Amino acid sequence: MTGDGTRAVHAGLPEPVPGRPFLPNPAFGAPYHLDPVAGPRLGVDGYGRTDNATWRALETAIGALEDGECVTFASGMAAISAVLLSVLRPGDTVVVPADGYYKTRAFASSHLTERGVTVLEVPTAGPYPALDTVRLLLVETPANPGLDVCDIAELAAQVHAGGGLVAVDNTTATPLGQRPLDLGADFSVASGTKALTGHSDILLGYVCTRDPERAAALTAWRGATGAVVGPFEAWLAHRSIGTLDLRLARQSANAAAVAEVLAAHPAVLSVRWPGRREDPAYQVASRQMRRIPGVVTFTLADRGAAERFLEAAELVFAATSFGGLHTSADRRAQWGDATPEGLIRFSCGVEDTDDLVADVHRALDAIKD
Ligand SMILES: Cc1ncc(COP(=O)(O)O)c(C=O)c1O
């Protein structure tokens, strides 16, 4: 296999054709021309809710990185809900992360519970209940925002022993950071809104699987619900994936430096970054991940301290996403996450490490002023 940078740059590109661009332009079309006599035909694009060449190119690219068949969706939540609703039936049990993205939990506890599905919330680091009666285990590793990590292969073996399925939310890791399908997961599902595309300008979701029937079921689900990504967003996403390796490398290096600054500062009560040897997730993360992402989570004394930090930092945008080019930070309790009031999810961008470290230092020192 070629290196990550090479794979990211070439993923999903067609064979070179003289006079054509490297990445084909977005295919805009609601209806496409039909053959007046033969009408709709398999393999010929007919309508934009089910057929789009720009999606197909993007799906080839993401599928190459995840090593599975990819189905794109309008957003991460569209992708996650597609897996949950297309797999689960009344009477089934699903396990979702108690400490993962709060909207996934909210979706499960409302829409799945009212459909007769039993929803168990389990912390990413465990302990897990017996998994042999579970229809679907959805894990998020590393979990957002706490950054705990679980052993995908071990959990998948337990779920598969009972005939259940495993989905891994790969948003934070990205396919260059972790390959859930290689580790035994049945689905790798993610928000491509974050580090995968990394420019803070599009919403995207996807699901990858190695089972053609499940891929076909997800494609049918997307066509029926209309949870499609627009061609321009799909094209931007594909264009952005070319720099994924470079962006992740800088983000990860920045996170390593920022985590050390945070760990050494008296204003910081605790810091989580699975790449630090002292981190509780370090052992499992180093075993199963190919690289550690640029998100660091830390806790300050209280809400006031977090707000003063966010105000004082000049290079850090207050924003509620992560994985982008620009360093951003979010006090998670303001969104209803069950986290301490002073907890900040800090997403390192691709700024120069020295500049970012100096800015974080300054902002931490400003907390006590
Ligand atoms: C881990 C995780 N999964 C899924 C989502 C949902 O993604 P989207 O906002 O693209 O719907 C998010 C959003 O923050 C997330 O952090």
Outline the structure in words.
Strands 1-7-6-5-4-2-3 form a seven-stranded mixed beta sheet, sandwiched between helices. Helix 5 links the parallel strand 4 and strand 5. The chain has helices at residues 4-10, 53-66, 76-87, 102-112, 152-161, 212-225, 231-241, 244-264, 282-288, 303-312, 353-366; strands at residues 69-73, 93-97, 118-122, 136-140, 165-169, 187-191, 205-209, 270-272, 295-299, 317-318, 328-331, 343-347. The longest helix is centred in the last third of the chain and has 21 residues, at 244-264. The chain is built from eleven helices and twelve strands. The termini are far apart. It is an alpha/beta fold. 36% of the residues lie in helices and 15% in strands. It is globular, with a radius of gyration of 21 Å. Bound molecules: pyridoxal-5'-phosphate.
Write the layout of secondary structure elements.
Layout: H1 4-10, H2 53-66, E1 69-73, H3 76-87, E2 93-97, H4 102-112, E3 118-122, E4 136-140, H5 152-161, E5 165-169, E6 187-191, E7 205-209, H6 212-225, H7 231-241, H8 244-264, E8 270-272, H9 282-288, E9 295-299, H10 303-312, E10 317-318, E11 328-331, E12 343-347, H11 353-366
The protein binds pyridoxal-5'-phosphate.
Which terms summarize this structure?
globular, 369 residues, 5-stranded mixed sheet, 36% helix, alpha/beta, binds pyridoxal-5'-phosphate, 7-stranded mixed sheet
